[in-house]
Every structure is written in structure tokens, then in C-alpha cells.
Amino acid sequence: MSAYDYIPKLYNVRFEAPEGGKQSEEFFLADIDGKPTRFNIHDYKSLYAVPWLYDIALYHTLSCETPTEMSAAIKGVWEQNGVDPSQLRFLELGAGSGVFGHEIKNTLKVPHLVGLDIEPNAKLAAERDRPGLYEDYLVADLTALEPSSRAVLEGGKFNVVGMASATGWGNHIPVAGFEQGFALLESGGWFIFHVKPQDPDPECIALNDWVNEKISSGALLEKYRASHFHRESSGGGKIYYDVVLGIKA
Ligand SMILES: C[S@@+](CC[C@H](N)C(=O)[O-])C[C@H]1O[C@@H](n2cnc3c(N)ncnc32)[C@H](O)[C@@H]1O
């Protein structure tokens, strides 16, 4: 029994192992319309185009647990801090097909949830596979917001900005996107993410530096940090990230 059993097991996903040296160099085969088709796990455009494919590959085949690990940690911290979820307005960055959004709505009981992703097929997947989950879903590059998206986001008065599985390793949200996400959060609001410590990827190093600077300067008050299982690699290794929750000064 898994919290991800609601994701239908539509495809037999077979990863190529061993994987390359980077998390972005993992490939798998799935039979789509009866034809074996090869996918890279960071090729979001192609993955989200196929119903539930990203979710099946990550949450069934690679046993990813980040959405449930993060939501359990958040629930505990919010309870300790007397947070009333009914008062929260959550902006989810790099929302993808909505698997973390599912936990935000169903486990954390946050009523107002807006998603944002750079990839148009992410919005398509979320609306196709999880209709009604997001109050609004913007297709936008967080590092280069158009004035129309900026106006919508600034009007959102978000008191939580969070993201799951959307940091580091290329094709994910870089430091400039974190800075923009942080700017869209109201003072006193919760900033929630996970980050891979001690990783050679330049984006991870830059992100760890950014986080450390935000905390040491007092801009972000760290309320929680702990290592959590993320997922298996296609070669069977175990990947862990630090889940971080902080309050914006
Ligand atoms: C690994 S997926 C995570 C999806 C989802 N959060 C989950 O937990 O399954 C990372 C997402 O970040 C999005 N992304 C990458 N760069 C972005 C940017 N600059 N602005 C907005 N979204 C971005 C990608 O398109 C992708 O959907």
C-alpha cells in the first residue's frame, strides 16, 4: 500500500541501468500505443504529453517519495507552529503534472493553490490527469516573467511559496528562479523546498550558497531542515535531499 497507488499503472516502464554520471542522464523505455518508446527523465515536454507517464516512471518505478516526505514534514512543522492551513495561499513552483499539488490539497488541506511551470505540457498534464486541482496554473519562466504573469502572481498575495523535485541538475529552477519565487512571497510567509547538499552539480552548489546567504543575512528564518529520501536512481542507488522550511523576514 503506497500513497501513490492512486496513480494508474498504465505502462511497463523499463529503465536503462546503469545510469550516466548525472541525475539528468537517465533513460527508460515504455510501450506507448504498442510501440517501445525511449524517454529521458528530464525531457518534461515529451513525458507530460503522455497521460500519467512522468508519474508512473518516477513514483512507481523509481519509488520517488518527495511529495509525501515533504508534506509530512510540513504538516508537523505547521502543527508545531500553530499554522491554520485554511488561511494559506500556496504558490507551487515547477508544479509539473501536480503530484506535490495533490498532497498540498489532500494532506495539508490548503484551499488556495496556484501552480506555475515553464513547460506548457505541464499545465496540460495537470489539467488532464488531475482536473480541478489548481485554482490557476500559469505557464511561465520564473527567471523571466512576462508583465502579465507578474501582475497575476503579485496579486496572488501568497503566504506560502514551495516546490518539490524542481531544483538542480539542469532543466530545473535555477537560483534566479528561487530569488523570484522568494520575492513573490509575503513577509511572514513560508518558503519551502528541498536541496541536495554536497553535490558537485554547479546548480546545486549555487543554490546551497544562495540558501546559506538568505539564512545568514536573516532574510529567511530556518524552521526545519532534515534529510529525506527522494528516490532511487535507475541503477538502484538511493538519493536523499534536505527538506527546508523557513519563514521570510
Ligand atoms: C522534476 S519536475 C517536478 C514536477 C513536480 N513538482 C513533481 O514533484 O513531480 C521539475 C519542473 O520544474 C519545471 N521548471 C524548470 N525550470 C523552470 C523555470 N525556470 N520556471 C518554471 N518552472 C521550471 C520543469 O518544467 C518541471 O516541470
Features:
249 residues; alpha/beta; 2 domains; three-stranded antiparallel sheet; 8 helices; globular; binds S-adenosylmethionine
Say which CATH homologous superfamily of the largest domain is assigned: Vaccinia Virus protein VP39
Shape: globular
CATH class type of the largest domain: Alpha Beta
Output the CATH topology of the largest domain: Rossmann fold
Bound molecules: S-adenosylmethionine
Count of runs of 4 or more consecutive helical residues: 8
* Fraction in helix: 25-40%
Q: Could you name the ranges where pLDDT drops below 50 across 5 or more consecutive residues?
A: none
How much is the average pLDDT? 94
> How would you sum up the major sheet?
7 strands, mixed
Strand order of the largest sheet: 6-5-4-7-8-10-9
User: Could you tell me the number of beta strands?
Assistant: 10
Q: What is the end-to-end distance?
A: 40 Å
* Estimated share of beta-strand residues: 25-35%
**H/E order of the elements?**
EEEHHHEHEHEHEHEHEE
Structural class: alpha/beta
Domain count: the total is 2
Q: Please tell me how large the radius of gyration is.
A: 17 Å
The CATH architecture name of the largest domain reads 3-Layer(aba) Sandwich
